[in-house]
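Tokens for PAR1 protein. Go.
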Amino acid sequence: MASTMCLKNIAVLALSLAVCVQATLGGITCENLDHDACAFAVSSSGKRCVLEKHVRRSGEEAYTCRTSEIEADKLKDWIESETCIKSCGLDRKSYGISSDSLLESSFTQKLCSPQCYGSCPNIVDLYFNLAAGEGVFLPTLCAAQGANARREMSEIRSSGYVAPGPINAKLTAPGPINSVNLATDYPPVEVAPAQAPF
């Protein structure tokens, strides 16, 4: 029990030291962050940091922190606190971020809790944008906890729907596509020559 507390204290101290060193050196650069501080951090340029996992030829796992192309809204030089990571139901060793987590009711409950939604603007901004990309308004999803939450989440699930293209009378759908002879089935279209402007 005492060794667990000691390890937690060392981890908090290391994270605090990393923040102080970054502030002293002039800002956060994702590539300079340790993998324990990378996920949910924002660089001094306002780009989000992402943790990547690589497997070496020896089979050993290696972790690197990289700058993503995703911009944080009005945030720079930010390393997310452990309190927010826990309150929002996240994991420091997340590899990439997906809107799929919004489909999990237990995650959505933590994200929408006052401890997360009201206190962790970096995480809320990230998931607000992920939800918006799926056509869902995060405050509406949070307000719909319960019966309406399933409907809001089904909107996320159905966001991958692609509308069918135009159907040609020569082709039948659904079913197998019939072979088409371009020379006989589609006569060439004559195009009028372009006229010069007066």
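Residues 21-79 form one domain.
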